[in-house]
Design goal:
The complex is a heterodimer. Chain A is mainly alpha-helical. In chain A, about 80% of the residues lie in helices and about 0% in strands. The longest helix of chain A is centred in the C-terminal third of the chain and has 45 residues, at about 305-350. In chain B, about 30% of the residues lie in helices and about 30% in strands. Chain B has 3 helices and 4 strands. The N and C termini of chain B lie close together (about 10 Å). In chain B, about 30% of the residues are buried. The model of chain B has no long low-confidence stretch (mean pLDDT about 85). The chains are: A mainly alpha, B alpha+beta. Chains A and B meet through α6 and α10 of A and α1, α2 and β3 of B.
């Protein structure tokens, strides 16, 4: 009999849900900031608005969902035991929420105090998360490709956080130097590629075949992509720090690796067994198209003359964050949340032996109905298109911000409805005559 | 491989989550004394195992290859089913 891999090791549903439900709120804050600041926000990557906005998005939305998903997924899928999940999850979540808000406030004018508080809170929150996950992964009973890949992704997060804390300390007025160059570029590269892209790829190996019923990813890709990206990022970092020749080469190879991942994912999605699509599939396809475009435009920006390189880099970053990462996160949430609700309802039902056979639980599709998520997908697509157009026509930025507000609001409402359904079904199970 | 005459067979490959687990749980509930459920699943259904345990079933993963997992389920304490033919 197989042993040791079970829902009993997984944290209560409230642990991942608090992360998932917080993400749309930070998305609303980011979109609200975009609406408030207007076109100036995209004028320079160094503008305080751009820095506050990007951190609300990458910490408050993307890292928020990814941390919550990892806390839930590792026990169920990899047999990794998280010690005291409710406490760990609660602390990580609280510190991440408050740390992200402090950092945004620091950028927006609160100044050195905001950065000092943010450094402490984010250092403790993300550092604690890394310690718990790293400890669990080091003792994982099954050394699957995903476990290996997650180790690389967490190393990428550790480097990103380390570089970010160095920059935060530089802003804190404690007499430490603010090494904007080269630390910002390295912080960005490790955060976007070493953490976000690597984790998405590793999670895709599990979730795409499982939820979309595609063939598995090629073993060689699963074996080498995460480690290869880590090595290329190491090469890129040393090339930047030491001024090596051919410094653009690792960046171009990274773009090629991501493009290959995107193309393989699109091919697998085209080979799925069920021909009827769903919202999650649309989000994954949009995400991979966004990644392909981001890789191509990002590579072009490295070779383009300075006059157009900045606009190309901005478009590539927007495509990566909102077209790729946020789309995939949406696609994952629309599968993970109903799946977790279903799993936890089954677990609850099993405890009521006397009525178990008389209660029919909702399936995944009725926990989060397709038409509601489909509406949000179309809104997301339109918001992305208008934002990209705003790179060339800044007057479109505020209309884009309004569309992003609606997009995040609808995502939040959809997730909330699944949570409410969980509560309703729990009460039905508990009070069934 | 010889198969016990009383085995219930269930092929849930190609069904979207969470239908394979729902059907295996429903099939397990129908098991008679001495009978086993032999299920073919696309992948090892890890979260299912604790649900089976909670409901009073034992299980054994007979074979796992990419795209195919064969699973045997029987009522806990049913020695005849547990002995089976494997």
């Amino acid at each position: 009999m197989n042993a040791g891999l079970s829902l009993e090791q997984a944290p209560p549903l409230s642990v991942p849900l608090r992360f998932f439900l917080s993400a749309p709120l930070f998305g609303l804050a980011a979109a609200g900031l975009l609406l408030w600041l207007g076109p100036d926000v995209l004028a320079s990557r160094w503008s305080v608005g751009a820095l506050a906005l990007s951190h609300l998005l990458v910490l408050g939305v993307l890292a928020m969902v990814m941390c919550g998903a990892l806390l839930q997924m590792l026990p169920v899928l990899a047999g990794v035991r998280v010690t005291r999940p409710r406490l760990v999850g609660g602390l990580c979540h609280g510190l991440l929420v408050l740390g992200t808000l402090s950092l945004a406030a620091g950028f927006l004018g609160v100044g050195q105090d905001g950065f000092r508080v943010a450094v402490v809170l984010l250092g403790l929150g993300l550092g604690g998360f890394l310690a718990v996950m790293g400890f669990g992964l080091a003792r994982a009973p099954h050394l699957q490709d995903s476990v290996r890949g997650m180790r690389w992704a967490l190393l990428g997060l550790a480097l990103t956080v380390g570089l970010g804390l160095s920059l935060g300390l530089g802003h804190s007025g404690l007499g430490l130097p603010l090494l904007r160059w080269p630390l910002t570029d390295l912080h960005l590269a490790w955060g976007l590629l070493g953490w976000i892209a690597t984790l998405v790829a590793v999670v895709a190996w599990q979730l795409v075949p499982m939820f979309q019923m595609t063939p598995p990813y090629p073993p060689r890709l699963r074996r080498w992509l995460a480690a290869g990206m880590f090595a290329l990022l190491g090469w890129h970092s040393l090339a930047v720090l030491r001024g090596w020749p051919l410094a653009q080469l690792p960046a171009l190879l990274l773009a090629a690796a991501l493009a290959i991942f995107a193309l393989i994912t699109l091919r697998l999605l085209a080979q799925r067994r069920r021909k009827v699509g769903d919202t999650s599939l649309y989000f994954w396809r949009l995400g991979m198209a966004g990644l392909l475009l981001a890789a191509a435009i990002g590579a072009a920006s490295r070779l383009a003359p300075p006059a157009v390189a900045a606009s190309l880099a901005l478009a590539a970053t927007l495509l990566f964050l909102l077209g790729f990462a946020l789309s995939v996160v949406n696609g994952m949430l629309y599968k993970i949340v109903p799946f977790l609700v279903w799993l936890h309802l089954q677990q609850r039902l099993a405890t009521r032996i006397e009525v178990r056979h008389r209660i029919v639980l909702p399936n995944m599709k009725s926990i989060l109905p397709e038409p509601r998520s489909r509406q949000q997908f179309y809104l997301h697509l339109a918001a992305l298109a208008v934002l990209l157009a705003a790179v060339l026509l800044p007057a479109l930025l505020r209309p884009a911000a309004v569309m992003w507000l609606a997009d995040f609001a609808l995502l939040g409402l959809n997730l909330l409805s699944a949570t409410r359904r969980y509560g309703t079904e729990c009460r039905r199970i508990d009070h069934f005559p | 491989m010889a198969m016990a005459a009383t085995d219930l067979n269930l092929d849930v490959r190609g069904l979207p989550p969470c239908e394979p687990m729902e059907r295996i749980l429903a099939g397990s509930d129908r098991l008679l004394p001495g009978q086993r459920l032999r299920a073919l699943v696309s992948r090892e259904p890890l979260p299912l195992f604790s649900m089976l345990q909670q409901r009073g079933f034992d299980w054994r993963v007979v074979a796992v290859v990419e795209g195919r997992c064969e699973l045997l389920v029987w009522r806990a304490g049913d020695l005849q089913a547990a002995a089976g033919d494997e």
